[in-house]
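Risk register update: the risk of archive-format incompatibility is retired. Evidence:
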Amino acid sequence: MTHIVFFEKPGCGGNARQRAALEAAGHTLERRNLLTAHWTKESLLAFLAPLPVPDWFNRAAPRVKSGEIQPEALDKAVALALLLNEPLLIRRPLMQRSDNHSRHVGFDTTAVDVWVDLGTNPASTSTGEGCASPAERCAAPV
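Archived output:
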């Protein structure tokens, strides 16, 4: 199968379910901490540029959830500056295939299945973005 560099927030239950679905499908993962990775404008845009600016943001991040940050109202430059300054705002996971260097943002199960085959494993049907419960505290900093 495929080796994937998987940028996650350590301790996030949603990311744990996503990893489990990928591994159950036979993929191998190189886990990296999204919050402490050395992001530059170029390295982050390599993932985000194909998407509309609002899709760059983690909707569960406290500042987005509270309405303090409204991704739909931001232009590309302001959004990128916010994400570089506060990586908790970045939609996760960020993933990169080692075989062709293609990248993917977030974990919409259907889109991920097209990007890298998730197979028919049961974990793939219930996996998605976000936390399953408030106890997972996916948005809180580590």
